[in-house]
């Protein structure tokens, strides 16, 4: 089973650092970096707005604990967004590639 994990980061440098580490360590097969995300959220009792980048991380569901720990270790935010969505279906050849990339 596979998951797509979402996390937002403050800048391109942090996005590249996290993405490279996760792929190099085989915790992710692929990380898409989506620039110019505008986030509005509640933080410390106030409504805040930030320009961020979104990381879409393709991973094995069984590696979620290790992946979350590694993101937290590399991330600059006190409480980083780390949300997992299970992949229900996918193109068989792509899922095969995911498996091979994570083994």
Please give a structural write-up:
This protein has 103 residues and is α+β, with helices and mostly antiparallel strands. A hairpin with a 2-residue loop joins strand 2 and strand 3. The two termini are 13 Å apart. The model has no long low-confidence stretch (mean pLDDT 96).
Describe what is shown at a glance.
With 103 residues, the chain is of the alpha+beta class. 34% of the residues lie in helices and 40% in strands.
Keywords:
103 residues; alpha+beta; 4-stranded antiparallel β-sheet; 3 helices; 4 strands; 34% helix
Q: What form results from the Cα inertia axes?
A: elongated
Strand and helix order: EHEEHEH
User: Mind describing the biggest β-sheet?
Assistant: 4 strands, antiparallel
Per DSSP, the total helix count is: 3
How many strand units? 4
């Amino acid at each position: 089973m596979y998951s797509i994990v979402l996390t937002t980061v403050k800048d391109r440098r942090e996005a590249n650092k996290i993405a490279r580490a996760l792929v190099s360590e085989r915790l992710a097969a692929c990380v898409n970096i989506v620039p110019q995300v505008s986030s509005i959220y509640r933080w410390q009792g106030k409504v805040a707005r930030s320009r961020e980048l979104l990381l879409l991380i393709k991973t094995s569901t069984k590696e979620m604990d290790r992946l979350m720990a590694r993101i937290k270790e590399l991330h600059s935010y006190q409480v980083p967004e780390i949300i997992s969505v299970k992949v229900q279906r996918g193109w068989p050849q792509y899922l095969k590639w995911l498996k091979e990339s994570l083994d």
